[in-house]
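Entry type: protein chain
Record version: 2
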Amino acid sequence: MNKVLRRYPELRPKSKRPRDITNLEINRVNLVYQIIIDKMSFLDKLPPPEAMHPFYLELASLTVPYKKYWASAKGLMRLRQKMKEMWEDYRAMVRSAVSLEEAARFRREAVGRALSMVRRSSGAFKTIRDFKYAVAQLPSIDFDQPRLVVAGMPSSGKSSFVKRVSTAEVEVASYPFTTKQVHVGHVDLKRYKLQVVDTPGILDRPWEELNEIERKAAVAIRYLPNALLFLYDVSDEGYGIEEQNAVLENVLRIVPKEKVVIALNKMDIANEKKVKMAEERAKELGLPVFKVSMKTGEGLDELMEFLVKKALEDFAKEKGV
């Protein structure tokens, strides 16, 4: 609309002859409709929901529901088609006007309707812009490369693990909820690059009670892992083992058990009772368990060797290779 308002006054008739004035009115109509329709060409590049990977679709929908996005897009596509039809009609009306006054009236009507329709559609434009920004801020996941997702409760050591084993530069602090986004680091395996995905800490609550940060973690856990590392905090500083067990149960509802590996973190300051309880639960579930310390590096090499093997095996099944 700014472009229309800037260029519209620049149009002038070649002369004061009726034919040139009529052509000016047609050119004014052409200018307005051409700009609006050209500016709406972005609609042709918008991906329909079915063309997007469910991971991106669901993650973006935490900001703008994808059904609202696509309803807005289809509404604007209908608007553009209506604009094209109006453009043809009004050009014909101005050209066939019986007087200059009638030509000017048709032109004013054509321009007024077009600009009014754009103004009324501002909400749809905003929805698409917001969805676009939401997608642009998502982590870049290559689904042609293996993926290791790291999960656990807040302060269990997820970010420390990702920072130690991969290229990711993630914030690490001693307080919970440091990670607010899904971050991705990489490990070069020569033939492949293992993507190591750091997720926000999740708590023991059903989906409808999770906040947006926790839902981002849940979406990553649902769609990404070829292998999933679940970290327990077995120090006196962390959550109780019962609470961590409950979160693990939630993870196992959406991730096949054969993809999950348990690591007991903070062994350098471990509470032996918590270690024993966590080990017992892992064994009951038939899950492999490792003892590690992100602070000292204890057990990390063995853990990574196991995780890489598991991720590559699942990735090979996924790709049929």
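Comment: The chain is about 55% helix and 10% strand.
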